[in-house]
Amino acid sequence: MPGIYEADQVLKVAEVGDTIFIAQSDKVPFSRLLKRGKKPYNMLSSWPVQVYPDRKFEGILDGTDISTFTHTNREQIEAYAMWLMTEGWMVSRLANLTHTYGVKPGKEEAKQAKDDALLLGQMIEKQLLSSVDMAVESGSTPYRSRGVGSWLASSAQSVKPVPANYRPNSACVYESTLAAFLPAEMEAMLEAAATQKKEAVDLTGYVGIKLKTQMSTWAQRHVEDVNTAQALTRYNLDAEDKKLMRVVDFFEFDAGKVKVFPSWYLLCTEGTGAVTANSSRSGYFLDMDMWELCFLDNPASWIEPRKSGGPRGYHDAVYLLKCLNPTGQCMANIAS
Questions:
Q1: Side-chain-side CA neighbours of residue 245 (13 Å)
Q2: How far apart are CA 211 and CA 205, in angstroms?
Q3: pLDDT tens-digit profile of 171-220?
Q4: How far, in Å, CA of 272 to CA of 13, rounded?
Q5: Taking Cα atoms as reference points, which of 166, 169, 168, 170 lies closest to residue 76?
């Protein structure tokens, strides 16, 4: 009698792994590194800002009495909070009972809820790093918090504009091409920022990967001739330690210094969440002491009433991004 061969077997069990491999990062560094501000109790928040005025220094005649008096003045910055909600998750009754590779029976509900929480974090990160302006709720428009790109605008915003004395200087905003963004351009931005603050600045940069790569190349070529290579520094290393290093994360100029981190959530499309041409080429250079993320209601998980179709829920948060004083910060908004 002939033996049985593998090709003759039926109802074979498929060999599929029990882990779902997700290549995308789940990190949202900007929102996690922001200071947490005091909990607001209204959708509209405000705080005072001030600059020191210039005073004459001519000298005073002996015996002169003061006859006029002055004072330092404060102005007000205002901002709206917003309510952000996921599209929600739902698992059918039978889907939750089914055993699929990577998800055990009865665990599909927990997985979908966990994924939904991560998506809320990404939504908040994208909104914070956007250029959307504030909006007050109307019959057709919801409340909207101002994104970093709008906070750093050198011109007046359309809603609750930052007072003119506290907007970044126009020289702090770069809007030309990526190829033309060289050390001289960064130096000019920092000089304008330092001049506003009257001290050297110490900024943290959140930049798209193309802009990050462009800045790293500054160490490999002549600063005025892009075709002239710099001499490479040589190290005496063991063979296993030898590598070509083309990464630069820290830049220091006379007017200040910048520590740079790559970000994949800059200037995304508000209506879809998708990246734009600007996302990988742009960057924000921020004084992190001047930013706060304030939650009226912390990110939360909500379970909807269980219906016959199966369990369902969503995640949401009510929050406000505060730029306590935009003065002395920089932005590169680059489309090509």
A1: 10
A2: 11
A3: 999 999 999 999 999 999 999 999 999 999 999 999 999 999 999 999 87
A4: 40
A5: 166
